[in-house]
Specification:
CATH class: Alpha Beta
Largest sheet: 8 strands, mixed
Shape: globular
Radius of gyration: 18 Å
Low-confidence stretches: none
Helix content: 25-40%
Mean pLDDT: 92
Number of helices: 6
């Protein structure tokens, strides 16, 4: 299942517009905050799909029946670009366990690339809700490898993928490699360019959030 939160006008669509705007996105703090806010909104939407129970809560005036999550999810993100999106979700799922993946494109001289995955850490994911975030779902290669690596460590009862902008090609590839997942996107673009970046997209999310990096 794929959810596009910009199918209708909303605050998420507004945040996406600011992320794309070259006159606004160079404000790094605002850029990070807009991605963070998308993570917050999507967390709220995901929460509707989770399992809840009723508990009695004591107030100064009596007792109130209230809802609480049966189990806390596991939040996993791909470093470094995923950190603001991850923080937005952690703001809402503030008792969640957390995992981190170092995965990045390694380009050759002919313009092709492979995914280098150098660091994987995750808490127990067996029979838990797994939520994996990466702001840009372009080809889907990084997220597919990430999920395949995590699934060797356990079997979640639900898997959600969260991104700010997704490309149709990447969505199709990811669903073909890891069936049964749910994808939540701030918006969906139809095109990748020759370098496999999303068009119109927004540029390099990691660089915009944290500054340009030196290529090793």
């Amino acid at each position: 299942m794929v959810h596009n939160l910009s199918e209708k006008p909303s605050l998420v669509a507004h945040y996406v517009a600011e992320l794309r705007d070259v006159l606004i996105q160079n404000d790094r703090m605002r850029f990070r905050r807009n991605i963070e806010r998308i993570g917050e909104v999507i967390s709220y939407e995901i929460s509707k799909e989770l399992e809840w129970e009723t508990v009695d809560v004591t107030t100064p005036m009596g007792t109130a029946p209230c809802y609480q999550l049966v189990d806390q999810p596991v939040l996993v993100t791909i470093l470094r670009a995923g950190l603001p999106l991850h923080q937005g979700m952690l703001n809402y799922f503030d008792h969640a366990d957390n995992g981190f993946i170092a995965a990045y494109r390694e380009h050759d001289t002919e313009g092709n690339f492979t995914i280098n995955m150098g660091y994987v850490t995750s808490p127990e994911i067996n029979d838990r809700v797994l939520i994996v975030s990466d702001p840009m779902l372009a080809t889907g290669a990084s997220l597919a490898l990430t999920l395949q690596k995590l699934l060797k460590m356990g079997t979640p009862k639900q898997i959600h993928v969260v991104c700010a902008i997704a490309a149709t090609e990447g969505i199709d590839y990811l669903l073909s490699q890891v069936p049964g997942i749910t994808i939540w996107a701030g918006t969906i673009d139809k095109e990748l360019n020759a370098d496999k970046y999303i068009v119109p997209g927004l540029g390099d999310a990691g660089d915009l959030a944290f500054g340009e990096k030196i290529q090793a």
